[in-house]
Amino acid sequence: MRITTTRFVFSLVTGFFGLMLILFSDYINSPSIIEAQENLAQNQNQNQYPFLNEEIPDWKARWELAKVLSYLKRYKESIFEYEKLLKEKPDLIEAKCEMANVLFWNGEQDKAIAVFRQIPEEKLDDKSKLFIADAYVAQKNYDKAEPIYRSYLEKHPEDAKARLKLAEMLSWQKRYDESIAQYEMILKTVPNDIQIRRKYAFVLIWADKQTQAAEELKKTLK
Fold first, then answer.
1. Is the sign of the CA dihedral 202, 205, 209, 212 positive or negative?
2. Nearest 5°: CA angle at 194, between 190 and 198?
3. Integer Rg of the chain from CA
4. Are 58-139 and 157-222 in the same CATH fold?
5. Rounded to whole angstroms, what are the CA distances from 38 to 21, 31, 99, 136, 206?
6. Please, which residues have CB within 8 angstroms of residue 195's CB and are 6 or more apart in sequence?
7. Which end of the chain is more exposed for a tag (fewer CB within 10 A), N or C?
8. DSSP assignment, residue 121?
9. How far apart are CA 92 and CA 114, in angstroms?
10. CA–CA dist 175, 66 (Å, integer)
11. Residue range 164-175, pLDDT digits in tens
């Protein structure tokens, strides 16, 4: 009797849970629930990845293309894309700076300077100003390059590469004492740079300071 009752109860419970499982399965697979789940997933994606619903306009794609071409050193193609971009978006200051840099890398210093001059000075970042100075040096227009280098170095005195450009430019103008002073500042920052020390020694020679130059050259040789 007890066994029969137990079997009956077990059968009843099993049947109840089976019925609940069927009802729950129908519920979660109903079109309204599936649609609600899909909407929830879509909203989560929109919140987490908002760019999924953004359309990338042609001008932005062209800008990225111009950048990538410059990274690949395909400068003429990059310049062509920048020119097309700026016809459509002439107020993109950042793109103008980038194109001027690419023009400089392509050896077109005059055009690079012309583009830079179209940009208000307050809109130029320090890196762009350095490119202008480099372009002036390439033109041997040292008087215009020097104040840009010096202004930059007031803000970034630790930039040995920029200071080296100033030191070399001064030596080309035979302003040896000023050049030597810049080299000495550089060597405080990078005392183990053999090539810079050798350049420093050469300027010492040109300045008729052979004894000091000999000591500096010895330091670069084993």
1. positive
2. 110
3. 35
4. yes
5. 23, 10, 45, 61, 78
6. none
7. C
8. G
9. 16
10. 41
11. 999 999 999 999
List all residues 6 or more positions away from 57 whose beta carbon is below 8 Å from its beta carbon.
Answer: none
Domain boundaries, the chain: 58-139, 157-222
Fold of 58-139: 1.25.40
pTM for the predicted model, two decimal places:
0.66
Q: In Å, how far are 20, 81, 174, 182 from 6, measured between CA atoms? A: 21, 83, 111, 100
Compute the distance between CA of residue 86 and CA of residue 88 in angstroms, rounded to an integer: 5
Domain 157-222 has CATH 1.25.40.10: yes
Q: What is the pLDDT of residues 148-168, one digit of tens each?
A: 999 999 999 999 999 999 999
Coil/strand/helix, residue 124: coil
DSSP 119: S
Q: CA 49 to CA 43: how far, in whole Å?
A: 10
Residue type, 61: A
